[in-house]
């Protein structure tokens, strides 16, 4: 091998900074020191958000209990069906969803589209959670909302700087407190006021017109399905799963399924509880409908039955703050990764994850100051269409195109030199599925099918990827099948190899899956240097 070539400064700086938590790249075995249980608990700690309570309350108030419950059930089934193949693939091969998406029908630059979709998810839900925290600070401490929005944003920045190493500790230590504060009020309410259950089941919405209706069920499901992209945040943790071996097989699968698609079991339960608490609030507080969708108000009412007023307010505020911090460190962290991935590929420069952490938080703060909480159903219902299209298309490519039709390579590929710029299979599928479902959402295809826009996204997301894969013969998945390295990519158990090779551009020693041969220098080059160092001699030519 030749000695290291003179490296582009951007490539060297990017390579060294991203080693902290392997932003933009494969997470190597040497870094994945956590057990399946620790990774799983850390991932589930990120679903402590209170937005589910607001979502459940909002859809119940709008459509009634029966329609809301069926909508939540549809939401859960869709998330489990699409999240299972995606979570397995990411945990098995230790890649975030952007890297998975590249080789699952989108291509190296095509997945920038889905990165933007995901980044949008993170700042929308950061703003939603920040709004809930600001409501708690206003109620408990008298802090004006606009100041509360700023506080809920600023406190997150230092917690996200250190990536997975700090986030795993934070989630582990705060989860027991969160569980006690969350479960206790609901359990007390059911036991002390059993009549609240029948009131809940009979509730027909704010206007009293919530009779069972398929259209209302789908409208409710559409709002809930805005959370389908949560699987990408779960994967930002699941990529750190240890290798799957015969010894840890059961624990590995349990952690992957519970912390992957299993997050929706907890999310759906919180939506039901949120609606339950909202109905109780409306039934017992004069004029309560105006604030029944605010979690801090819901919990405060029940805490006041249990403890003195001052302590009730304290517990409600603590619950809101702990929940907001637990989820918004994940929203901020994942959003910074998504923006950084996109910017680096478009420009070939890496300004640092912390730059885009600031950008993501700033966008979320603007949304909060614009009072997005008052337009929650409309915002989430609109966003759900494109989010559904993305996740369903990726899941379909993995389950159908890779494992059934075998037109898509079974093993993941994310390296620049190995992929086409854009693969029409996934890219066109998302554009068409998302575009037509959004048109349906706004009534462009007729009011009769307007409530069914989520089904349009799901149906097209299922049908288009295999159709386009067959039509193109799968030719746009890989530019070449040989990366020029005569070493196996996987070990005897099918896990990514931990053989270490030197990158001649940045000088780092990295594991086999992250490397490609550089034929111009008879050396190796890592995936990130291929992204940030634009000298074309590093990129392998296309085969044939």
Protein described:
It is a single chain. The protein is 63% helix and 3% strand. The relative contact order is 0.18. The strands form 2 sheets. The protein has a two-stranded antiparallel sheet with strand order 1-2. The chain has a two-stranded antiparallel ribbon with strand order 3-4. The protein is mainly alpha-helical. The chain is globular. α2 packs across α9 (164-192) and α10 crosses α14. The protein contains 21 helices and 4 strands. Mean pLDDT is 85; it is low at 1-19.
**What is the helix/strand order?**
HHHHHHHHHHHHHHHHHHHHEEEEH
Q: What is the overall shape?
A: globular
As a whole number of angstroms, the C-alpha radius of gyration is 24 Å
The main pleated sheet reads as: 2 strands, antiparallel
| SS field, number of helical segments | 21
Q: Which ranges are low-confidence, i.e. pLDDT below 50, for 5 or more consecutive residues?
A: 1-19
* Largest sheet, spatial ordering of strands: 1-2
Range of helix content: 55-70%
Count the beta strands: 4
Which structural class best describes the helix and strand composition? mainly alpha
Which band does the percent of strand residues land in? under 5%
What separation lies between the terminal Cα atoms?
26 Å
**Mean pLDDT, all residues:** 85
